[in-house]
């Protein structure tokens, strides 16, 4: 018996030859995706390694499936087979959890030897629903423009599109931008919209009649247009509006209170604060000048005390030097001189 070999067949992109040289790439293999609670078929072709003869032996291959929670939900189950060598496993019992299902197909190639191939798949919704797609389209429209459509018919001054289902005047003052056709790139403002006929009327005509052309409606200028076209608008232009406000003889602020809290400082409040601050500065300057005078006087008294101390020290040194030669009268005279410089407790601090 020849040894058997399991071959995986991968999908590749075949590049067609053209007159100009083109690069050829293989499309990467992606995991198979299965819908929850729907029929999912997992399979692989198996051939003899000599001559690529399809293998059709029953119970030749087994499949094992492990869910995202690491629970084995299919354990070495025999796979069905077809006459062309296709071995497959079909199930519709898998509903949850969504995610990656590790899957292994193993085939007996003789004796105790097996060959296995990874057939991991993803459980989950493959495509968006129509509702999801509509939601995505509306999000894109909202980010770039309000509406994109294709005209059913039209003229140089009007456009008809059955997709326009909004109420009367909904699109008034919006801007129509033609994307295709003979008017591509041109813009016009919508002056009227009639819901019953799905008709947009333009404030000025296009160069050519509108046919079944693509277009967009955007509202980037609609707010200003609505203000200026309002039937109750009294202001016709800006003109001298700003200067008129500031030159008005009766222009006044009615209250100093600010919306966010606090209040505006009035002129009288600032004048009062300035006067008070000036007075405090003057008082401080007077106090500083008085302190400077006192400091000067103290400094002079310290200098005088230092002079007296030096004189006393000189007298004492003289008495000590003459102690052995002077008589009592001389010493008493010198001591009287020292006493005079020192003073008594009855003397005031201002007397030297």
Summarize the structure.
The protein has 352 residues and is of the alpha+beta class. The chain has five helices and 18 strands. Helix 4 (267-321) runs antiparallel to helix 5.
For the record, give the distance between the C-alpha atoms at the N and C termini, rounded to a whole number: 139 Å
The H/E string reads: EEEEEEEEEEEHEEEEEEEHHHH
Q: Give the neighbour order of strands across the main sheet.
A: 12-18-15-16-17-14-13
Low-confidence blocks of residues: 1-28
Mean pLDDT: 79
Radius of gyration: 53 Å
Number of extended strands = 18
| Percentage of residues in DSSP E strands | 15-25%
Proportion of residues in helical segments: 25-40%
DSSP summary: helix tally: 5
Largest β sheet strand count, sense and barrel closure: 7 strands, antiparallel
Estimate the global geometry from the Cα principal axes.
Answer: elongated
Which structural class is indicated by helix and strand composition?
alpha+beta
